[in-house]
């Protein structure tokens, strides 16, 4: 196999990749920053067996630039020797471009445990170190009723209030209203809002096939919202979830998660990714407890860094 720069994405992958590493997402993320997409190329088959895209900013390389993860993806026939060869060739390119640091966020282990273990081994083998080690939580979708997964106290609350409010999936949601709820929710918790309503609207409508807008209302009042991002055929990512502080006693988030769980079951999705409950490896114990009470299963989400001399 050959190491090759395929930044035009002219060569098709031999595998079904995650949304955040798709050519459309790469262009959306770039925002004018240069990027390079590197592959291991099987010449006979004219396909990319492995691919990773790096964004360049000053003398540093990032994967991703603006999404939950980037890293490298590959097919089932790619082995550790192939990945090690890829990293050695990548190092040569990085040194030739005078890149000083590389930052890579990998996908949660639950997405593909075998590949995650291979990637982690190869990162460490090739001089990278783990810079962040986050705790990611997901629900494994099965024929089991969502209520069975809940902690007893959460189960009682869910059973009491699950039919009190109106849940919907909106094709053309009011982005401004949703953003206001997100902003209110983040400010109460002392967390920054990392997106503008303009960028959120652009993101939603640019990737509408992969985004679902889930809403929970009390009459005309929006009390809960979340976006579901179809990262792959099997994975739905819980994105920008928010609920109204005034309705806290009803736990709108639990109702939302239960409804989205049912959506996943109907849509043939096997992993409902609730996201991380840490920030730069620092645990948020309240969030950890909440996600555990939802029946969340923990897995690692690792970030890697390398300093090039």
From TrEMBL:
Residues 155-277 form the BioF2-like acetyltransferase domain. It holds the Pfam family Acetyltransf_6. This is BioF2-like acetyltransferase domain-containing protein. It comes from Sporocytophaga myxococcoides.
């Amino acid at each position: 196999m050959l190491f090759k720069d395929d930044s035009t994405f002219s060569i098709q992958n031999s595998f079904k990749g995650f949304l955040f590493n798709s050519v459309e997402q790469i262009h959306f993320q770039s925002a004018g920053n240069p990027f390079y997409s590197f592959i291991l190329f099987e010449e006979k088959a004219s396909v990319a067996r492995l691919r990773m895209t790096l964004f360049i900013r000053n003398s540093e390389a990032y994967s991703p630039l603006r999404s939950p993860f980037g890293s490298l993806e590959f097919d089932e026939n790619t082995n550790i020797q192939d990945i090690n060869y890829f990293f050695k060739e990548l190092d040569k390119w990085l040194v030739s471009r005078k890149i000083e640091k590389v930052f890579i966020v990998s996908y949660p282990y639950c997405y593909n445990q075998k590949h995650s273990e291979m990637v982690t081994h190869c990162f460490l083998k090739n001089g990278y170190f783990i810079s962040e080690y986050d705790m990611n939580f997901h629900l494994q979708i099965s024929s089991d009723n969502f209520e069975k997964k809940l902690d007893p106290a959460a189960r009682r609350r869910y059973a009491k209030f699950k039919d009190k409010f109106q849940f919907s999936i909106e094709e053309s949601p009011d982005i401004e209203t949703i953003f206001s709820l997100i902003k209110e929710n983040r400010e109460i918790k002392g967390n920054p809002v990392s997106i503008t309503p303009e960028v959120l609207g652009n993101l939603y409508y640019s990737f509408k096939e992969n985004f679902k807008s889930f809403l929970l209302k009390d009459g005309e009042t929006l009390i809960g919202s979340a976006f579901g991002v179809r990262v792959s055929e099997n994975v739905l990512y819980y994105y920008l979830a928010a609920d109204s502080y005034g309705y806290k006693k009803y736990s709108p988030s639990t109702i939302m998660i239960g409804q989205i769980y049912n959506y996943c079951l109907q849509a043939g999705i096997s992993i409902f990714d609730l996201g991380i409950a840490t920030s730069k490896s620092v645990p948020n114990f309240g969030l950890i407890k909440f996600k555990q009470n939802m029946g969340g299963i923990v897995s690692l989400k690792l970030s890697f860094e390398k300093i090039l001399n």
